[in-house]
Amino acid sequence: MIFIDPHTDLLNVLQFINDFSKTIGIKNLNVDTQTISGIINGAVFDGDYSSSEASPFKKLAAFVAYFVAQKPIVSPLPLEKFKNIANHQNAIFALEIAIDSLHGAKIHRGDGDFILENRIELSDHSYIDIIDAISYVTPQDGKKLVAVLLEQMCYRRNAACEYV
Amino acid sequence: MAKQKENDLIVFDNLVQAASDIAGDNQPVRARKEAGKESRYAQENASGEPYRPKDLSDVKTRAIMAGERFNVLFTDTSK
Known about the structure:
Strand order of the largest sheet of chain B: 1-2
Helix content of chain B: 10-25%
Number of helices of chain A: 6
Strand order of the largest sheet of chain A: 2-3
Order of helices and strands of chain B: EEEH
Number of helices of chain B: 1
Mean pLDDT of chain B: 85
Shape of chain B: flat
Number of domains of chain A: 1
Oligomer: heterodimer
Radius of gyration of chain A: 15 Å
Largest interface: A-B, 65 and 48 residues
Helix content of chain A: 40-55%
Shape of chain A: globular
Mean pLDDT of chain A: 92
Order of helices and strands of chain A: HEHHHEEHH
Structural class of chain B: alpha+beta
Largest sheet of chain A: 2 strands, antiparallel
């Protein structure tokens, strides 16, 4: 849903946050739209992780890193509604956007293009651990681990798509 | 500055943002429907690209499905 053009990316991210938050029962989520635009720009032009060069895993790792570090979701989650998950709302929205963006993503390999047909699926236990692990990532530190994590989670469900 | 027509805008009905520097003074998030001038990011040398939704209703559908999965994992039904 991102890495298309600046305004389309912003609309797609806002639409996803709007409907994901509504579905999980959060009302009137407070967001910082200027920060979201900055996050998209930061990720798109982030060196080896940039839109023009990188794999979808690296692109989305950059997005996650900027999103988590810049915290555009101002409202906390209503924790009384959920069980066992810490209130890392920015990590949760970043991970959900990354997982959704990888569902149907294209992999360009020397022997052709492949589509990640199967969405990443996580148990509640894994989800909680991943949210905790990515909550302190920044664009300068930890991005590569996020890229590898996203890549391996995708290959677990789409083994034939692995880069060779 | 030209006045923005209401039907040129999308209103995100579950999002709010600060309306002023007064704490708690929020307004709904609105955005222009079309950018018009912005060019697409170059990706021809990339080793892949994320999913490209058909339109905003595609994004909406996928967001709702993601939210439903989240609810299955984390909604506390004991309360």
